[in-house]
């Protein structure tokens, strides 16, 4: 048993450490603005959603065309070397079906999240991602946009191949979380000039897995997904920054709620182009 | 031993709290409470309670949507004060909020539990192109968990 004076001494030191740890909650280092703008286009095919019990069709099979212009602006640097970037949606449209009927109430434009990545592009956290998810925004379904603009390829010599995972989490409210990973094998196919820009051309392919959910409390839910991903990434030879990305990803998503389970097949073909 | 326990309870990574892109419930409460000092000098007379509907604009500031039954003088006062109140700009859509203003014994209070209208988010990871009812049917089939995420 410690003497009372020693205990209070330790307690005061501990309290000081706690308060000091809580003191600097915001940006660690100011960063100079270097805004990147990108055009993203995705053609998607969605399978029907059917009740396995009654056969009721909740969603007919459909297709969708998503077009976005986004901006990426540095916000802060963290102590672990990772960096925050504000991903803002400048323009966005969603068209449905073969006729390309505009989706009414699509409200993605104007929204923003913070993408926290390591300098190589590996995604750690997407803050505020739930504000782009769900009804009228759909970034929970089109979430591959995040790795599409920040794919984090390995550093490879010409002609070399190596495995490297593409990972990103979805962190929602009330302990909702799922993790996505593509166990990609990357190959550097050499130099290529695109629109006057000298680039490295890298290709990747691998299985795409998703798992997570909310394990406890009301609203328990489980998300699982299995599919495959492949694509071509072009990196600016001088800066190493992303210059373009063509991709083709697909998955079967299974959502298990407290009283039912539903599945949907989802296929995505898309491009990312740096426009500024 | 005690050092290990106390250090174990120390926050390890306090840096990295989400930036203020959107209005949290805490921030909404702070905006509404910020109006209280002005109201104090404005309303008078008998005790009353009145519902107030507001939009916290994405561009910053507040727009008064509706004010419940109250005298013309009090209505004008509430309208002026809420319209002039500060609310930060944010990346969401204009946020609809309902609250209640109370006058009790000359003291003005604003409800500590405003009603905030948020959109239906779920069901997640499934592409449902239908309206809110279609999404609600899917969420309810799964178990209602997502349906509560408004």
Summarize the structure in words.
The complex is a heterodimer of chains A (276) and B (150). Chain A has one domain (4-274). In chain A, 9% of the residues lie in helices and 55% in strands. Chain A is built from 2 helices and 14 strands; from the N terminus they run H-E-E-E-E-E-E-E-E-H-E-E-E-E-E-E. In chain A, the strands form 2 sheets. In chain A, strands 1, 4, 5, 6, 7, 8, 9, 10, 11, 12, 13 and 14 form a 12-stranded antiparallel sheet that branches. Chain A has a two-stranded antiparallel ribbon with strand order 2-3. Chain A starts with a helix and ends with a strand. Chain B is of the alpha+beta class and 150 residues long. Chain B has 5 helices and 5 strands. In chain B, a hairpin with a 2-residue loop joins strand 3 and strand 4 (107-110). The radius of gyration of chain B is 21 Å and the shape is elongated. The chains are: A mainly beta (276), B alpha+beta (150). At the A-B interface, helix 1, strand 4, strand 5, strand 7 and strand 12 of A face helix 1 and helix 5 of B.
- Please outline the major beta sheet of chain A: 12 strands, antiparallel
Q: What form of chain B results from the Cα inertia axes?
A: elongated
Proportion of residues in extended strands of chain B: 15-25%
Topology as H/E string of chain B?
HHHEEHEEEH
The tally of helices of chain A reads 2
Helix content of chain A: under 10%
User: Kindly state the mean pLDDT of chain A as a whole number?
Assistant: 91
Structural class of chain A: mainly beta
């Amino acid at each position: 048993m410690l003497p009372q004076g020693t205990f209070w001494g330790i307690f005061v030191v501990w309290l000081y450490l706690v308060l000091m740890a809580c003191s600097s909650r915001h940006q660690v280092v100011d960063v100079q603005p270097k805004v990147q703008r990108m055009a993203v286009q995705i053609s998607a095919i969605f399978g029907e959603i059917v009740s396995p019990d009654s056969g009721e069709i909740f969603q007919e099979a459909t297709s969708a065309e998503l077009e976005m212009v986004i901006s990426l602006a540095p916000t802060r640097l963290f102590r672990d070397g990772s960096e925050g970037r504000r991903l803002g949606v400048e323009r966005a449209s969603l068209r449905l079906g073969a006729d390309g009927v505009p989706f009414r109430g699509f409200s993605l434009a104007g929204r923003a999240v913070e993408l926290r990545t390591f300098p190589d592009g590996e995604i750690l956290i997407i803050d505020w991602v739930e504000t782009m998810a769900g009804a009228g925004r759909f970034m929970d379904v089109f979430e591959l946009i995040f790795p599409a603009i920040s794919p984090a390829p390995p550093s490879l010599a010409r002609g070399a191949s190596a495995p490297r995972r593409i990972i990103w989490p979805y962190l929602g409210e009330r302990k909702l979380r799922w993790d996505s990973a593509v166990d990609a094998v990357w190959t550097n196919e050499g130099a290529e000039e695109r629109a006057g820009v000298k680039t490295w051309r890298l290709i990747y392919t691998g299985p795409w897995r998703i798992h997570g959910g909310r394990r406890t409390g009301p609203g328990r839910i489980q998300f699982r997904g299995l599919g495959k991903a492949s694509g071509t990434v072009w990196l600016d030879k001088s800066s190493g920054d992303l210059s373009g990305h063509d991709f083709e990803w697909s998955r079967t998503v299974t959502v298990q709620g407290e009283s039912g389970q539903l599945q949907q097949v989802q296929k995505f073909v898309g491009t990312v182009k740096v426009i500024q | 031993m005690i050092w290990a326990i106390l250090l174990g309870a120390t926050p390890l990574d306090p840096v990295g709290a989400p930036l203020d892109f959107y209005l949290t419930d805490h921030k909404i409460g702070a905006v509404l409470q910020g109006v209280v000092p002005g109201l104090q000098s404005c309303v008078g007379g008998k005790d009353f309670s009145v519902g107030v509907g507001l939009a916290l604009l994405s561009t910053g500031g507040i727009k008064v949507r509706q004010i419940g039954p109250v005298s013309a003088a009090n209505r004008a006062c509430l309208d002026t004060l809420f319209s002039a109140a500060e609310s930060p700009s944010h990346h969401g859509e204009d946020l609809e909020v309902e609250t209640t203003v109370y006058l009790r014994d000359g003291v003005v209070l604003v409800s500590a539990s405003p009603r905030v209208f948020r959109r239906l988010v779920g069901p997640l990871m499934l592409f449902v192109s239908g309206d809110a009812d279609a999404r609600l049917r899917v969420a309810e089939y799964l178990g209602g968990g997502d349906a509560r995420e408004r």
